[in-house]
Amino acid sequence: MDARLTFIHDHAGFHPDRAALPAANPVVKLSGFTRRFGENTIIDGLDLEIAEGEFVALLGRSGSGKTTLLRTLAGLDPSDGQAIQIPRSRAVVFQDARLLPWKKVWRNVALGLKGLSGRVRAKAEKALGEVGLDHRLDAWPLTLSGGEAQRVALARALVREPKLLLLDEPFAALDALTRIKMHDLVLALWAAHRPAVLMVTHDVDEAIALADRILVLDQGRIVAQERVDAPRGERHDTARSLRPRLLSLLGGGHGGNPGDASVILFPAAHEARG
């Protein structure tokens, strides 16, 4: 089963950065978002909507603005005076698990939770049970494998029941087999908790396997998107046709057949302005 999305032509009144089809209940909404550092424009007039429970993957070359966008959505960078809607309840999982080595695993998960100590520990235990680590509650972080450490980081994020979960290349440092297991775990946790997810990745196959929608960011603007409708686990045909087009975009060219209906291609920044 292949994914299909109507090709959007460049016509009068069409906004070139309209990366999200209108969401009925957007958890994230950015309108004309711009981020500059000195004379360098990192994000350039970007529009983005992410719906409740939607899983979105963000692809882009190094320097395309992915990290800047994620930091904004995480609330790590100021966004004063800009039209940004993000939920108060949000969590981030980074490539590095960022566990505190002097705290046992359950205390890392419970970090920042308020309430009676017994209830806090019970919440941490439940979260660790969801990621298959209820037997490692009192372990020290330095005794964990890379995959275990990332599972602890996921438990720490989801124990707060965030409305927005941000994943910053969380599986990039893992071996191939562990990554596949982590993909299955993330999908199971997403299905159970249903947060909106934005996952930053360089891995095209990972994006196709996990996401409802794939965005390609280049020079601070969303230049293409793909909605993947094929059921997860049945995306082999989708991957075979979509992978080369996404790789071409990441390599700096649009590639593929301009009449292909699967990928929305937006005008480049200079074309949009000209």
What are the SSEs and their pairings?
Layout: E1 26-37, E2 40-51, E3 55-60, H1 66-74, E4 83-85, E5 90-93, H2 105-109, H3 117-130, H4 146-158, E6 164-168, H5 176-193, E7 196-200, H6 204-210, E8 213-218, E9 221-227, H7 236-250, E10 264-265, H8 269-273
Helix pairs in contact: 3-4, 4-5, 6-7
Q: Secondary-structure element order, as H and E?
A: EEEHEEHHHEHEHEEHEH
Shape: globular
Largest sheet features = 7 strands, mixed
How many helices? The count is: 8
User: How many beta-strand runs?
Assistant: 10
Mean pLDDT: 81
**CATH homologous superfamily of the domain at 26-98 and 163-273 - what is it?**
P-loop containing nucleotide triphosphate hydrolases
Describe this structure in words.
This protein has 274 residues and is an alpha/beta fold. It has a domain at 26-98 and 163-273: Rossmann fold (3-Layer(aba) Sandwich), CATH 3.40.50. Helix content is 31%, strand content 23%. It is built from 8 helices and 10 strands. It has helices spanning 66-74, 105-109, 117-130, 146-158, 176-193, 204-210, 236-250, 269-273; strands at 26-37, 40-51, 55-60, 83-85, 90-93, 164-168, 196-200, 213-218, 221-227, 264-265. A 7-stranded mixed sheet has the order 5-6-7-3-8-9-10, with helices on both faces. A hairpin with a 2-residue loop joins strand 1 (26-37) and strand 2 (40-51). The longest helix is centred in the C-terminal third of the chain and has 18 residues, at 176-193. The radius of gyration is 19 Å and the shape is globular. Mean pLDDT is 81; it is low at 1-20 and 252-274.
In short:
It contains 8 helices and 10 strands. The protein has 274 residues and is α/β, with parallel strands linked by helices.
